[in-house]
Each structure stands twice: as C-alpha cells, then as structure tokens.
Amino acid sequence: MTDTQNEMAAIVAEQAERLFAGAVSRERLEAADGGPFDTQLWTEVQQMGLPLALLAETEGGIGLALGQAFGLARRAAAHALQLPLGETMIVAALTSTPAEAPATLALAKDDGALPSVAWGGDAAQVLVADAQGWQLVDAADVSTSERRNLAGEPRCDLTRVAEQGRSVAVPDWLSADTDSPVEALRAVGALLRSVQISGALGRAVELAVRHATERQQFGRPLSKFQAIQHMLAVATEESAAVWAVSDAAAEGWGRPGFVLRAAMAKSRAGLATGRVAAIVHQIHAAMGFTREHELHFTTRRLFSWREEFGSDALWDEWIGRRVCAAGGAALWPQLVASTTAHATGEDAA
Amino acid sequence: MQQFEFTGAVLPPAAEAARGSIRAFLAEEVAAARFQPHRCTWSSFDSGFSQRLGAAGFIGITWPEEYGGQSASSLTRFVITEEILAAGSPCGAHWIADRQSGPQILRHGSERAKREILPRIARGECYFGIGMSEPGAGSDLAAVRTRAEKVEGGWSISGQKIWTTNAHHVHYMIVLARTGERGESRHEGLTQFVVDMQTPGIEVRGIRDMAGNHEFNEVFFDNCFVPDDMVLGAEGDGWALVTGELAFERSGPDRFLSDYQLLVGLIDAVGPAPDRLQAVEIGRMVAELASLRRMSTSIAGMLGRGEQPVVPAAIVKDLGTGFEQALPEVARRLVDCEPSLGAEGPFAEALAETVLRAPSFSLRGGTREILRSMIARGIGLR
C-alpha cells in the first residue's frame, strides 16, 4: 500500500462511519425490520462507492487493501446496517465487475434449491454456486419466496426460472482448497459473516460497558461490582479473539489456504457469539430484552449470522475431519501457516 | 468498537529462517530420543537440553552481542519459543531466565550483573527462580514482608518466599523485598534483588505438587547478603519493576501451548476417520487455538515495537489458560482412556499429566481473577 492509498482508505472509512452513524437510525432499522428495502440508504452507500471497495482499481473498483475493505463490512455490522453491502462488495470482486446494484450469494442444495438467500428479493444479481460451478444470475431469472431471519432481514428461497446466467470461474486460490464450488462460496460467505460478527460483538460489548457505567443499583454503578467487571472482561476477550481470527481470514482472501482460515474464523465467531450474547443480555437485564432498547438490533443479527454460510458446528466438523485425516504432527505447521499475517502490499487478490 | 485490537504481525524473513533452524534442532533431539514430548512442559527441568539449546544459539537471542545475545527481534524469539513449546520439549531449566529474569537484568541490572550473568543464561548454563509470592502475599503481591536492610556494601535479606519453581536447581532468584514504608499506594518501598543461591543464609525446602512432582519450593532467607550491584533499578522501584517482569511472564505462547502435545496425542488417538462428535470437538479446539496464536503473534509485534501490551497480554493469558484447561476435558470425552501415570501408553500418560497440572494453568503468573480485573481496568470500569 502506498501512502496515497492508505490516505484514501482512511477517508473512505471515515466517510462510511459518518454515514452509518447518521443514517442507520433506530427509526430506519425498525422500518427495515420485516419491512421494505431501504433504497434511499443504498443510494447513499452506492454514491460513496462502498460496494466497489474490494474490487481492484484496474477493474473499475476502489481496490482497498483486504483489511480495509473487510473493515468496512465490520463497521457496517457494528451499526447493524440493514443492507447487503458485504455481499455486493464480494460479488463485484469475484465477478471482476464494477456493478453497484445490490447483489448477493446463493448456495444450491443438491436438488438445486436456493434456500435462505440474503436479500434474495432485492438483489439485482445473484452469484449462485452449485455442484457444476458458479453462475451470475439476473433477478429476472429467479422467482422469490420471501422469509426473514431472526433479525428481520430478508432471507429468500429462490428458484431459477430460466437457464440463463453468466458463468463465473471459481478462482484458483479457492479451487486449490476445495473441489466443491458450493463449499468455496460457503467459505467466502463464512468470512463475511465472521467479519460482521466481529463488528457486532464489539458493538454489543460497547453497549454493555456503557450500560454498566450508567445504571446504578445498591447506590453505585453496576461497573463497580467485581462480578460485572469480570463478565465484561470475558466479553472483551471473546470479542478480541474474533477480531483477530477474522482479520487472519480476511488476509487469506486471494491465496490458497483461505478456506481453512475462513472456517476457523466462523467457528470461533460462533462460539464467541453465544458467550458474549449471554453476558451482554445479563448485564442489560430486562431492559435489553425489549424492543425499546437498541441491543436487540445487534444480538438478533448475531444469532442469525452465526448460522449462515455454515454454523460453527459445520465448520468445526470440517476442520476436525481435515485435521484428523492429516494426523497430529501435521497440525502445528498448518496452524502456523493459517494464522501468520501476510505483509501489507502483498495482497494477492 | 473493540478497545483492544490485535493487529497482525508480519514475521520477518529472519524469524522464518529461525523456524527452520529450531525445527531441525528439535527433530534431532526427538530422533535421538532425548526427551518424551508427551511428558514434558515448560517447567520440566533438563539442564542437558538447555545447554544444547544454548550452544545452538536459541537462548537470549534478543539481547545485545556484548551480553551473549544476537540482537535478534522479538518476533524471531517468538518463533523459537512457540516451536520449543509445540514440540513438547523439556525447556524448564532455562525458561524463566530467558523469558523474564534475563530481560529484567538487561533493562535494570548493573553492568557487572549483565556481564557476569547474561552470557551464561544465553549459553543455557544459568537458571533462575522467581521470588515474588510469600505465604501472606499471593495475588496481593504488595503484601510481601521479606525485608532487605542496608548494610555495608550491600543489603541483608530476611524472610520467606514460596511457590518458587525449581528453586532447588537454579543459580539465582530475583527477590522482591521490602526496603521502606508501603506508603498510601501500598506500592512504595519495594526493591528487586538478584540473589545468588550459593550465598550463606538461604534454605530451600521442596513442596510436592498434587501430581507428586517436586517443582515448587519454599525459600527461606536469614540475613542473606546481596551486594549493591545486584540491586535491580533504584531502591524503591520494585513495584514498577515487578509489574514489568510480569508483563514478560504473561505475554508469551507458553500461556496456551502448555499441553499442546495432548492435542497432538488426541488427534492421533482418534485417528484419521473421526466420528462427528470427535471432529466437531477437535475442530473447535483448533479454531480456538488459531485465534490464540494469532493474538499471541500480535503481542510479539507490539513488544518488538517497544510497546507494553499489559492488557492485551492479560487477555491472551486468560483466554489461553482457559483453552489449556478445556483441552483435557475435551480429550477425555472423545477417547475412552483412563488417565494413568503408569505404563499405559503415551496418551494415557499425557492425559494424566495434563489433568493433574491443569489447575495450575490459571494460577501461575497471575490468577484468572487478577487478569480479569486488569482487563476491567483497561476498559474503564475501575
């Protein structure tokens, strides 16, 4: 990364933060919760160029470094942004196309069904993975049956109504790790959800720390009770662990070994979600259990995201089978290779 | 959003080169059957191993050449350390000297202390014990009562230390003693001393741990003389010094790799075709380990930049010891094997060693409760 690129990344991050902080209000989150797509907000996100963050400059994108691009998805998740920004960013990068309309990822079942596709009814294009490969499909070529996840975000069951679709090559760095086009795209989605979970965990802990500092019982703030302090220390640890392991996964984008990094991140993110959600809700007590309080925008997303693109249990099993097949002695070098940082400027994507 | 970020640390080529060398060294040790990986931890005392390691240039490497070091980066040291631990080697003899006592002498010791002691540590010939805890001063370290009185040419120490690992083998201890009034903060009037274990007036009594091992000791000091140039820092600076020493003690990969060989043994005991429960549980432990290794590398990077990552180190130690303690619990549910120290096979032995050692993981180097209070302070709750 040159200084100019870093400066630009910092400006993009700052602009995005300002947009999310201002525009992702409680009113708009409530309106989107089970409600229509926030077209106006998408236009603002698009005008800022955020959907093109991960796409290389030579392909018409902004070409941020990996950490910076996925940092935007993390930031958006911290604000519970009710839009498929991460999905669109990824589709643009994987199809090498500067398309800024909402896009999403779909994993086909063995029978061809495309269940629970994020914003499947709002996306202009869907990157579909099935046993044969990947295809970029237009919204006009799918029919949609809408459902919602636990956070009230659209998750749609799609059915392809026409054969049309632009074939997209699974990149070498993914096919090096897995023969399955579905597994390859699942890993990509797992990275995205891990990064989003990290942002949401950071937000959840922030809210709980604030509440503990403000709320008084027995004549003093909750934060002065050692039991509360230790709970928040644990939540901080868990959140930090997910940040670290999802950073490692984001860095792995564009290189062989990515799938294992994404698997580890999604596994750790799922584990931390249960632990952190339990703590932050306990600290917020009855207030945090209501729709009046803002905590649920974050924790309901956490409960949804940990299941998507492979639950922690699915990826645990994937890692466990692979590790056992390779034998005990092979684990250490594998662990070193999949957690060591790559130098900035050596992004291989 | 997240107060403590663990930025990835890129390992320089020298660190990766060192990985190759230390792996070759350890492979030769294993090939020659000089140690049994599944029975060793970083408190296992084996001076032969430490001397061979020192002769090969793997101890004290971050120190300047004039004190026996190689001016290598802390990331190179990190790589060597993690490889030594992952291999399950008996690195306990020199471990404390390399990890904390040597760095403490380098930063705060007299010229004589640096010249006489550091090169011997780097050769793997000189070992240290920790003289912090006392019967009345555990987590509440500021309550130490061991006293040092000023005498002609030095100090005279009297009092008692406890839980000093390998005190019966080591050449020196760094002793925290009271040299003045506690003050309102309770942290004043403390000083650290480098005490030669050959000095008259020292008595070491062993304490067997619950596994039956003799690693712990009580150490009694009765008018034990320490020359002026074996004082660390200035008189009264002991609290700041001991806090810095604990940061070295807490920050390394020894806080999640203590029982790594049990994980290796578990994977081999389960075999190449695990059932779903085995695969899920092992996968989860591996993912947890990945997050720990990533965070630990990041801390090595912070140390290399001259930062003092006190709270991040507490975070990794608390998460790490939690992982180490969970590992035998997971292992015993996945493999039907009764832990045994007898000749029941390596897995049964490793399981037994770990089950019996695990309670200590979240005690040594700062209890879980102390670490969580430090983290709470770090996020502004105290």
UniProtKB/TrEMBL annotation, chain A:
One Pfam family here: Acyl-CoA_dh_1
Q: Which Gene3D superfamilies match?
A: Acyl-CoA dehydrogenase/oxidase, N-terminal domain, Butyryl-CoA Dehydrogenase, subunit A, domain 3
Q: Reply yes or no: does the keyword Transit peptide apply.
A: no
Please give the start and end residues of each transmembrane region: none
Where is each Acyl-CoA dehydrogenase/oxidase C-terminal domain found?
193-321
- What are the entry keywords? FAD, Flavoprotein, Oxidoreductase
Claim: Translocase is one of the keywords in the record: no
Q: Name one GO molecular function term.
A: acyl-CoA dehydrogenase activity
Annotated protein name in UniProt: Acyl-CoA dehydrogenase
TrEMBL record, chain B:
Q: Write down the Gene3D superfamilies for this protein, in alphabetical order.
A: Acyl-CoA dehydrogenase/oxidase, N-terminal domain, Butyryl-CoA Dehydrogenase, subunit A, domain 2, Butyryl-CoA Dehydrogenase, subunit A, domain 3
Q: Which GO terms describe its molecular function?
A: acyl-CoA dehydrogenase activity; flavin adenine dinucleotide binding
Annotated Acyl-CoA dehydrogenase/oxidase N-terminal domain residues: 15-125
Any Pfam family the entry gives: Acyl-CoA_dh_M
GO cellular component: a single term:
plasma membrane
Cross-referenced InterPro entries, in alphabetical order? Acyl-CoA_DH_CS (IPR006089), Acyl-CoA_Oxase/DH_mid-dom (IPR006091), Acyl-CoA_Oxase/DH_mid-dom_sf (IPR046373), AcylCoA_DH/ox_N (IPR013786), AcylCoA_DH/ox_N_sf (IPR037069), AcylCoA_DH/oxidase_NM_dom_sf (IPR009100), Mycobact_Acyl-CoA_DH (IPR052161)
The answer to whether UniProt assigns keyword Oxidoreductase to this entry is: yes
- Quote the protein name from its UniProt record: Acyl-CoA dehydrogenase
Q: Which organism is it from?
A: Seohaeicola zhoushanensis
**Taxonomic path:** Bacteria, Pseudomonadati, Pseudomonadota, Alphaproteobacteria, Rhodobacterales
